[in-house]
Structures are given as C-alpha cells and as structure tokens.
C-alpha cells in the first residue's frame, strides 16, 4: 500500500468514526479514533479503536461491534473514569489507553477539552515508565526466574514450547521496562523491542522460535542474562503479601 492509499484509508476510517460517534454515542463530548486502520497499516481483520468521552457516566464500559463494515472496539468513559485508566496504564508500565488517547484523531465538538487531555497523555508517554522498583518489578523478576528454572530441566519439546510461550511476555516486559522503555502486549512487544534495540529484538525472536521448536537453550541463556542485569535470580527471600481483605468466612 503506497502513501496515497494509506492516507485515503485513514480518511475513510476517520469519516466512519465521525458517523459512528454521532449515531451511536449521541451526547458524547468528544472521542479519539485510533488504531492501525487510522495509520493506514491495517489488515482485513484490523479494527477501529474509539475512546468516547461523555460529560458524565455512572460507570465506564467497553464494547465491540461492526460499523460500516469496520470492526470497532469502543471504550466509553467520562473524564474521571478516563483519568483513572490513563493513570492505571502508566502505573502498569503498559500504556495502552494512554497511547490511544495520545495518538488518536479527535472526533466531536469539544476539541479544546479533548486536546488538553490528549496533551497530558502525550506528556505521560514522553516521560516514560516509572523506575523499576516495587512489588510489580519484583514479581516480574520472580516470574522470569521461575520460568527460566522450568527450562533448565530435561523436558519434552511440547513442554519447552509451552514454557517459552508463558515466558515471552514477562521477559519482554523485563527487557523493555528495565531499559526505561514502555512495555507492550501481544504484537506490540516485538515492535517495541525492535524500536529499542533491533539486534536484541532479533536475538529474542530467534531464541523464542527455537524454544517453540523444542530447543530452549538460547531462550534460557537470554533470560539468565537479563536477570543478571537486575541483580540475578529472584527466589530466596521473595515475599508477596495477600491483601488484608483476601478472606471469606465459611
């Protein structure tokens, strides 16, 4: 797809998003339309991502539907619920909602308020994730340690593949967040690793593919090397406390 085709597709999707918000979400103050279709990079299975903001709601929700032939994933908020999820995203290290708001095209009448919130989201993205401290960081180290230890034993190929699949996301998170970059879920993990360090991303990909094929040695070596950057294995002394309200009377 050339640049003109990408631009035309993005404009078609934006026009469909305008009609969708006007028809389905009457009363919304504004929305953000985003996703791969907006970038002209979508496939036949790509969807429009919509973040729709009302003046006030009892609660936020999300829903999926088809509009004018386009699959749509919509996230419905007011400003307070949107702020909650933006900050929760930033705290998690995986800024899915932050990225949608920061990079989306504004739809609707209240462009001034939409632009203000978008600028805050863009500033959150630019600031990067919080330093690697706290329970979430220790849990990632522990999970990588635990799964890496599972790869050390003699196992049949199908078990090595299953362990590698489980290790993929946690190790990718540790690599990205440990270098001050945002983490990503699913397809975004390899994209963000490639942006951060193409050589490391290629090594990760090759090691994972070998592990899925039943040879986990290189993926294990990569996990051990990453753990060494973070003080080594996390096992002895690890402690995770349950919430005080995690109980149920008989």
TrEMBL record:
Domain of life according to the entry: Bacteria
Zinc-finger among keywords: no
One Pfam match: NTP_transf_2
EC number: 2.7.7.-
Transmembrane regions: none
Record flagged with keyword Transferase: yes
Domain Polymerase nucleotidyl transferase: residue ranges: 29-58
Any GO molecular function: nucleotidyltransferase activity
Keyword annotations: Nucleotidyltransferase, Transferase
Enzyme class: transferase
The protein, known as: Putative nucleotidyltransferase protein
Organism for this UniProt entry: Rhizobium etli (strain CIAT 652)
Lineage: Bacteria, Pseudomonadati, Pseudomonadota, Alphaproteobacteria, Hyphomicrobiales
């Amino acid at each position: 797809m050339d640049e003109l085709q990408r631009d035309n597709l993005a404009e078609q999707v934006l026009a469909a998003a305008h009609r969708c918000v006007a028809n389905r979400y009457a009363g919304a103050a504004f929305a953000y339309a985003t996703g791969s279709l907006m970038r002209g990079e979508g496939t036949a299975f790509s969807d429009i991502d919509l973040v729709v903001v009302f003046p006030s709601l009892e609660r936020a929700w999300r829903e999926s539907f088809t509009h004018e032939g386009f699959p749509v994933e919509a996230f419905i908020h007011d400003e307070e619920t949107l702020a909650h999820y933006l900050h929760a995203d930033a705290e998690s290290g995986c800024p899915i909602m932050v990225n949608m708001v920061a990079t989306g095209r504004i739809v609707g009448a209240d462009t001034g308020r939409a632009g203000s919130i978008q600028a805050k989201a863009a500033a959150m993205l630019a600031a990067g994730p919080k330093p690697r401290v706290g329970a979430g960081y220790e849990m990632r180290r522990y999970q990588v340690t635990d799964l890496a230890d599972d790869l050390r034993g003699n196992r049949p190929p199908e078990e090595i593949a299953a362990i590698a699949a489980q290790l993929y996301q946690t190790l990718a998170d540790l690599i990205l967040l440990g270098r001050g970059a945002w983490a990503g879920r699913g397809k975004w993990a390899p994209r963000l690793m490639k942006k951060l360090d193409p050589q490391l991303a290629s090594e990760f990909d090759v090691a994972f593919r070998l592990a899925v094929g039943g040879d986990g040695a290189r993926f294990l070596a990569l996990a051990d090397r990453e753990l060494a950057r973070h003080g080594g294995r996390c096992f002895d002394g690890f402690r995770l406390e349950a919430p005080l309200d995690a109980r149920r009377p008989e």
